[in-house]
Amino acid sequence: PAPRTVLLTGAAGGLGTLMRDLLPSYGYELRLLDLRPIEGEPDAITADLSDRAALREAVRGVDAIIHLAGISLEASFDKILASNIEGTYNLYEAAREEGVPRIVFASSNHAVGYTPRPEAGDPLIPIDTPHRPDTFYGLSKSFGEDLAQLYWDKHGLETVSVRIGSCFPEPSSVRMLSIWMSPADGARLFHAALTAEDVQHTVVYGSSANTRLWWDLSTARALGYEPQDDSEPYAEKIVAEHGELRPGVEAHAYLGGHFVNDPPIWPY
Ligand code: NAI
Ligand code: 15L
Predict the structure, then answer these.
(1) What is the dihedral of CA 233, 228, 213, 103, to 10 degrees?
(2) In whole angstroms, what separates CA 183 from the centre of its chain?
(3) Which ligand gives the minimal distance to the CA of 73?
(4) Exposure letters 76-99 (e unless 16+ CB within 10 A, then b)
(5) Which structural domains are found in the chain, ordered by start?
(6) pLDDT tens-digit profile of 100-148?
(7) Rounded distance, CA 108 to CA 167, Å?
(8) What is the C-alpha to C-alpha distance for residues 114 and 257, in angstroms, rounded to an integer?
(9) Smallest Cα–Cα separation from 7: which of 98, 137, 71?
């Protein structure tokens, strides 16, 4: 049966807020969880991913989980370890113990961030390109994808790992013209990931059908995802402001963009 009650972790965040607006129209009843309280949502669960008892209770009885909670940019290894690596493990354990059948995991393009971006005319980046994290943050997403594979192989817990590009109301850089996922397409993709049959562990790129797309959306489309948006209408203004991506500039050379060379707190 199609999932109805869905736990949304990271519900206070940017993407969580967008999805709280968009997913109910697909018929889901969302249970919300975040470290931070959410204004206007008195029933939201305020809990840290380190709190195993709270997670066990939070996942009890849901049909699926969309796991967005975690640090969403580069940070010290210790912080990434606690929130993204141990936190994601704690959530998977709670789901396994409570028999939740499926998780949609917010992976990131930064799991493969050191992959050179395709030049015009090059083939699209395939989904089975090797992990090449560009940060400790990206490394935690590579870990999450492997954890998801383990929980499928060992426990039969299904996951769709979505390597999200940039999901914001509008693209704001030249790189984002290639990897942007409109919020409406994000909701379409999460809906497909929740409802497709027999996903086992499927990894997909998460973006709109951008004219300047860098990666192969076929595994996402195989779930039933039909993207409706394209960043190209924003291109003229963004390119006029920033210029096209330039050869020889490190931050322009890889999928991960500036994450390869300017994490804000490097060196650790
Ligand atoms: P965000 O930083 O706005 O939201 C993350 C939320 O997780 C925050 O509300 C935060 O309080 C919560 N959180 C952090 N650590 C926690 C912990 N230990 N326990 C409980 N809650 C915790 O990030 P955003 O942009 O909403 O991203 C959501 C997810 O999607 C993240 O996992 C991020 O890595 C991933 N992602 C997002 C992309 C985007 O374009 N927005 C791109 C690629 C991946
Ligand atoms: C991510 O993984 C981040 O969570 C998001 O804030 C953006 O920086 C995005 O990647 C990106 O690559 O633009």
Answers:
(1) 140
(2) 12
(3) 2
(4) eeebbbbbbbebbbbbbbbbeeee
(5) 5-260 (3.40.50.720)
(6) 999 999 999 999 999 999 998 999 999 999 999 999 999 999 999 999 9
(7) 11
(8) 9
(9) 98
- Quote the pTM value: 0.98
pLDDT at 212: 97
Atom in ligand 1 nearest the alpha carbon of residue 167? 40
Q: Tell whether ipTM is more than 0.95.
A: yes
Average pLDDT over the chain, rounded to an integer: 96
Residue 261 contacts residue 137 (beta carbons within 8 Å): no
4 CA from centroid of ligand 2 (Å) = 28
Distance 123 CA to ligand 1 centre (A): 31
The identity of residue 113, as a single letter, is: G
> Is-contact 246 254, C-beta < 8 A?
no
Which tokens is 168 given? 């914001």
Is the CB–ligand 2 distance for residue 166 below 6 Å? yes
CA distance 149 to 247: 36
